[in-house]
Amino acid sequence: MSKKISSDKLSIFALGGVGEIGKNMYVVQYANDIVVVDAGLKFPEEDMLGIDIVIPDISYLTENRDKVRGILLTHGHEDHIGGLPYVLKHLNVPVYGTKLTLGLVENKLREANLLGETKRILIHADSEVELGSTMKATFFRTNHSIPDSVGICIETPEGNVVHTGDFKFDHTPVNDQYADLQRMAEIGSKGVLALLSDSTNAEKPGFTPSERSVGIVLEDIFRKAEQRVVIATFASNVHRIQQVINAAESSGRKVTVIGRSMVNVVSIAAELGYLHIPDGMLIEPEEVNKMAADRVVVLCTGSQGEPMSALTRMARSTHRKVDILPGDTVIIAATPVPGNEKYVGRTIDELFRLGADVIYSGSNSGVHVSGHGSQEELKLMLNLMKPQFFIPIHGEYRMQRRHALLAESVGVDPDNIFITDIGEIVEIQNGSARKAGKVTAGNVLIDGLGVGDVGNIVLRDRKLLSQDGILVVVVTLSKQSGAIVSGPDIISRGFVYVRESEGLLDEANRIVSSTLQKLMSENVNEWASLKTSVKDALGRFLYEQTRRRPMILPIIMEV
Amino acid sequence: MSKKISSDKLSIFALGGVGEIGKNMYVVQYANDIVVVDAGLKFPEEDMLGIDIVIPDISYLTENRDKVRGILLTHGHEDHIGGLPYVLKHLNVPVYGTKLTLGLVENKLREANLLGETKRILIHADSEVELGSTMKATFFRTNHSIPDSVGICIETPEGNVVHTGDFKFDHTPVNDQYADLQRMAEIGSKGVLALLSDSTNAEKPGFTPSERSVGIVLEDIFRKAEQRVVIATFASNVHRIQQVINAAESSGRKVTVIGRSMVNVVSIAAELGYLHIPDGMLIEPEEVNKMAADRVVVLCTGSQGEPMSALTRMARSTHRKVDILPGDTVIIAATPVPGNEKYVGRTIDELFRLGADVIYSGSNSGVHVSGHGSQEELKLMLNLMKPQFFIPIHGEYRMQRRHALLAESVGVDPDNIFITDIGEIVEIQNGSARKAGKVTAGNVLIDGLGVGDVGNIVLRDRKLLSQDGILVVVVTLSKQSGAIVSGPDIISRGFVYVRESEGLLDEANRIVSSTLQKLMSENVNEWASLKTSVKDALGRFLYEQTRRRPMILPIIMEV
C-alpha cells in the first residue's frame, strides 16, 4: 500500500461503548465529513439513583452538526439504537439501517413523535452509501442474536475502516442468513487500515455454540414437559423466538406472547418476514386457561428478573392472565446481565416455590448461548481483516485489553493497537496512527422526561437520602425579640420510625432549642450561621446516638 | 406470637440460613432444652437502603430464654458468628466453639464490650457437651475455607440430629486437619434421625477441587512475577493465607499485610497456631517501597471490590501506603459473591488501567476454589450419615431443592425430606416427622447502632427519596385572614439541580399559591386538607412536566 501524503486527517473515536457495556456510539471523521455508527443506551449503574437510562454525551456532534452525514446502524439492539430518540431530538440527520433494524427504530421514533421528521434509509448487505464528499460505506452480513446484523466498511481517503458491529460466527444460523465470509475476506484482501471489533466475549476461550444448539434442547424440553411450558428470553432475540415457535409446532403446542416488548418484536419481526409463524399458532393469553396444559407455550419477557416484567409477575402470582401451576416447566433462556444475578435468582426461587420445574442457564442446561463470538471467533475476524491498526471496542476495559492480547497473538503489531476511552481520538494520517487528545464525552443521565439536570449534586443528595433519610427542622423566631415563637418541629422521613423513637426526637428538639437560644443570647442572628449551627449540633447528637447521618434541613422563619 | 411446642417432641427449625445465603441460625429443641447452632449475620439486599447488616429475629429465643442451653458454633465465618454481639446483648447464654472460632468471637465480643459477661467454652473434636437434661452434643472435624470447622451431632431422646456446618471433602487439606471420615461413618452406623446439611453448592456437579490446587498456582505466579505480587482474598481464609506465605517463602519474597480484617485474622490465627509464619517473613507496609519489587508480596482485603477496602483504594490510587505500579501482578483470589460482580469488575478494570497484570477467577486461572462441597460431596455426606429425615439448609430455595433431589437420588424417602422456610418447624415424635407450624422469624435490620426501628415505612421512604428526591414546601398563613403571609418557598434535594430548573420551580410555586388561595376562598382550612391538596396538585404538575414523583413535604404554619 502506498503512503498518502495529505494535510487532512482521519479521526476515529467512541462516544460510548468502550470501557463499558452499553450506549454504543462510534465516530469516524475525515476532513469535514462525520459518520456516526450506532446510537445506543445503557442501563444505569447502581450508584445512579432514580435514573432511568444513560445515553452518550453528543456535544461534539451537535457542535459540528453541519458535518454529520448520518448515523449507520449495525443492528437493532437497545445498546445500539436505544439512544436514537434522544440523539435525533438534538441532531436531525439521516439514519441508515437494514430492514429489521429500521422496523424497530421506526417503532421507537413513532413513540417519541420523531418519525415524520427523521430521514430513514434502508440498506442491504450490498448497499453502497455515499457519506459527504470523502467517505463511502459498504456492509457485510454477520451473525448475532438478532437478524439483519451487519458490519460496516467505511472507505476513507486514508484507507478502509471496518466496524464489525456485534458478531459471532454461527455456521448453522437459524435463519439461514450466513455470515458473509467471502465478503469479509475480500475486504481483508483489499486492505484494512483500521479494525474496530466487538470485545464482549474476549475473556471466553474457544467458540460460542450455534444458536441452533438451543433449538435442539428446547424441542426436547417441550416434548417431555407434561404441562405448560413458560419460556422467557430477550424480546429482541428473534432467532430464539423462531426456535420456540418451531419447538411448539413439533410438540403440538400453541404459543401465547406476553410482555409489551415481546409482543412488539414478534409483531414487527413477523410483519417484516423475519419470523415465520404457522397460521393458528398464536393464541391470546385469555385462551391459555381453557386449553389442555400440555398444548400450551407461554413466551414472555422477564429473563433478567426485571421487577415489572411478565415472568416476575407470574412468579409472584400477580400476573393478571397467567398463573404458574405445580408441574409447569419454566425456562429462563438467558444469562443474567452482571448486576441482575440476584433478581434472576429470586425469580427462580419463587417459581420453584410455586411447584414449577425451572430450567435456567446456571444449571448448564443448554437453553442459552451468547450472541457474541469467543476468542477463536475474534481471532478469525482479525485474520479475515488483517488490519494495520486495531481498536478493540464494545467492552469493559478488561475485555478490550484481552482482545488486544488476542490481536497481538495473531500478529498485529502491539504498537498499532489502541485501547481507548470514550472521547479519546485515534488519528491516522499518511498511514501512521497516534492518540490525539479527546473530544467531550460522558454520560447523560435521563430521569423521566429528562427535564432539568440530574448531575452530581442531585445524585449525591439521592445517595445521602437513601442511606439515612432526612430530618426537616422547622422553627419560627420573633423578629423583635429573637425568641422562639413556635417549634422546633422535627419531621423525619427515612430516618427512624417515629413512634419507636420519641425519646430520641424529643432530645433532638431540646438540642435545637438550646443551640438557637445560645446563639441569640450571643446576638448571632445571621440565618446562615443559625442554620449551620443547628445542622452541626443536631448532626453530632444523632451520630453519637445512632451512628447515622441523615440529611438535616433547617427551616427558620421570622415573624 | 410463637407457637407453643409440646414437651415430648423434638423440634428443629432455622431462624436464618434457609431460603437465603447468610445469617445462619438453627434451633433444636427437646422438652425444656433449646440448643442453638450458629448466630450469623447477612449483608443487606439492594432494597434495604442504608442498612449495614441483617441478623435473625430471635424473639422465640428471648421469649424462651430460660430454656436456651447455649449456642454451638460450627466455624468462625461472619455468616455463622457475626450476629453474636447482637444476640448476646439480649440473650446471655454460653457459647461453645473450637479454638480458632472462639478466638475470632472473642475479638468481636471485646469490641462490643461483651467479653466479660459471656461464658465461652472451648470444644475439641472429641468434646462432649451436656445440654440441659435431655441433650448432648459431640463434634466431628470437617474441611472448609477456615480451619477448625466442625459438624455437630446432637443426641436427643428421639435420636441423633446431625448438623454438618459448612463443609467440603478436601483429601489434601492445607493444614493436615483431615475431615474425620471415620467419626462420620461411626455416627452414621449408629443411626442418624435427621441430617441438616450445607446446600451452597448443590447446583454444582462433581467435586470441589482441593485448596492445595490453589497453592500450586500461586507458587507458579509468585515465581514468574517480575515485580510485586498483590493478592486479595477473604480475610478468614487462613488456609489461603498460609499458602500465600508458603509461596512467598519459596519465591524469596516478604509479605506485608494490609486491611483491618486481614491484619486481625492473621494475628489471631498466628497467635493460636493456625498460621505458620517464618521469622522475618512479615514486613511493615512502609517498608514495601524500600524493597526490590520482586521481593514483595502485598496480602490485602478487597477481593469483593468493597468500596473502602485496601485493594479498591490501591486500584483508585488512593491508598496511603501502596501504589500499584505498571508491571505489578495483582491476584484476586475469590469469586464475586452475587451482587458484587460489578464492583469486582470495576476494580479489575482500574488495576489493568494502572498497568498491572490482573489474575482473577473469571479467567479460569485456578486462584480460587470454593469452601463448599459440590454434588458428589453432598452425596458422600448423605451416604455416610444415612439419615432417616433430611433437611437441606444453608442455601437459597433453589439450592435446597436441588439438595433434596440429591438426597432422593441416594435413596432418602422423598416423604422424609423437608425443605423449610425460616421459622418453619419440623417436629419429630416416635420416629415420625411432620411440619408443625411456625415460630416468629424474620430479618432484623441494623442501621448504625440499631437505635430505633428501621422497618418497612422507613425503607419505603428511603426508596422514594433515592428515586426522585424530596421537595419541602413551606408556607405561612395568616390566622385571621387565611391569606398567605410568606412563601410558598420550595426547597428541593435530589430532585433537580435548581439553577437549571428555575422555570419549573417558579411554576410549581404558582401552583401551590393558587391551590391554597382557592381552598381558602372556599373556607377549607383544615390543615390536613390543605396539605393533601398541595401535595396532589404539585405532584400532578411535576409528574406531567418531568415524569418524576419526588416526595412532597408541605409545611404550613400559621401566624
TrEMBL record, chains A, B:
- Give the residues the record marks as binding Zn(2+) 2: 79
> Where does the chain bind Ca(2+)?
50, 52, 447
Identify which residues the record assigns to the active site. 198, 372
Question: What catalytic reaction does the record list?
Answer: 3',5'-cyclic UMP + H2O = UMP + H(+); 3',5'-cyclic CMP + H2O = CMP + H(+)
Q: Which SMART domains match?
A: Lactamase_B
Provide the cofactor list for this protein. Zn(2+); Ca(2+)
Q: What is the name of the protein in this document?
A: Ribonuclease J
Biological source species? Paenibacillus campinasensis
- Please name the gene that encodes this protein: rnj
